[in-house]
Amino acid sequence: MFRRILVLFAMPEIGKEILRKAKAEITFLHGPRGEQPAPEELVKGARGVDILLQRAILPIPNEALTENPNLRGIANCGVGYNNIDIGLATKLGIPVTNTPGVLTETTADLAWALLMATARKIPQAHVFTSSGQWKGPVGKPFMGLDIGPGGSNRPKVLGIIGFGKIGRAIMRRSRGFRMKVRAYDPPMKEIIETTRGVEYRELDDLLRESDFVTLHCPLSEETHHIIGERELDLMKPNTILINTSRGPVVDERALVSALKKGKIAGAGLDVYEGEPRLSPGLSDLGNVVVLPHIGSATEDTRGQMAVLAVRNALAMLRGRRPTNIVNPEVFESPEYLRRVKVKG
């Protein structure tokens, strides 16, 4: 009997080529443009499959795990895994994988582009120009903020929250703009303190000092709403906030309020609390740039993410240990051993 893999996103062709060579029944469950399935459709489609393979932004209902005794693994295409109840998966003996490393530079590029676009009001100026509104000198409406030292020759301060691979890639990009860099990430404090050109700061101090604050932390209980009303009040009026990590690390309603009141200068966002929905009023603001979660969206990177996700999926399908395992303790679980013996 063929084993079954359910793919829940529009996979790049390079990943499909590898899947076609596998001795497995491959089913795709998504809309014509890659739209994610409804939760009830996902649960129904997942019954009896051996592997779930999906984008890391797709929430996986717990029923998809509890109602399938055959499930051998879940392969996320993306770094994050807060779309899955990892505790439940581990308890049930289900390995979960992700695709770290592949998208570091691409996501850092996007975050830096978002920082520049927000600071210089590039999307707003584009709409103004392309719509035919430009009739002469524009002046104040598109007066932006310097990223480099600018005319005052004062280096700007970049605050990085989360000093993992992407946070460090952002730090490297800042060097060309001669920025002073502050970083907050308690587990990485020793690494920050030994990194040339970076100074460790506690969160409140980082927020008070920074001209730009960029978020690169994973979503956890500790980082949920790490930026809320209190934190926004600590920032300077000319601060710009960038978030390309996970939406819920920012209290979006508090952010909308702060932007409306001019407590901070602007925000550039690629992720949202309730995506694809945006908090009311967010998209109407003239000092915000919003993108549709495209941090890793280049053909090369998405292709390599798919390849890694497929390799992880096939390893779990064959009862082998995958390269990128989120919950390695699962392999000691009697529940996991029972699952891999179901079909041999």
Write up this protein.
The protein has 344 residues and is α/β, with parallel strands linked by helices. The protein has two domains: 3-100 and 298-340, 3-Layer(aba) Sandwich (Rossmann fold); 104-290, Rossmann fold (3-Layer(aba) Sandwich). Helix content is 34%, strand content 15%. It is built from 13 helices and twelve strands. It has helices at 13-20, 39-46, 63-66, 86-92, 104-119, 122-130, 165-174, 189-193, 203-209, 229-234, 252-261, 299-317, 334-340; strands at 3-7, 24-28, 51-55, 73-77, 96-97, 157-161, 180-184, 198-200, 212-215, 240-243, 266-269, 288-290. The strands form two sheets. It has a seven-stranded parallel sheet with strand order 8-7-6-9-10-11-12, with helices on both faces. The protein has a five-stranded parallel sheet with strand order 2-1-3-4-5. The longest helix is centred in the last third of the chain and has 19 residues, at 299-317. The radius of gyration is 22 Å and the shape is globular. The model has no long low-confidence stretch (mean pLDDT 95).
Quick tags:
alpha/beta, globular, 12 strands, 344 residues, single chain, Rossmann fold, seven-stranded parallel β-sheet, 13 helices, five-stranded parallel β-sheet
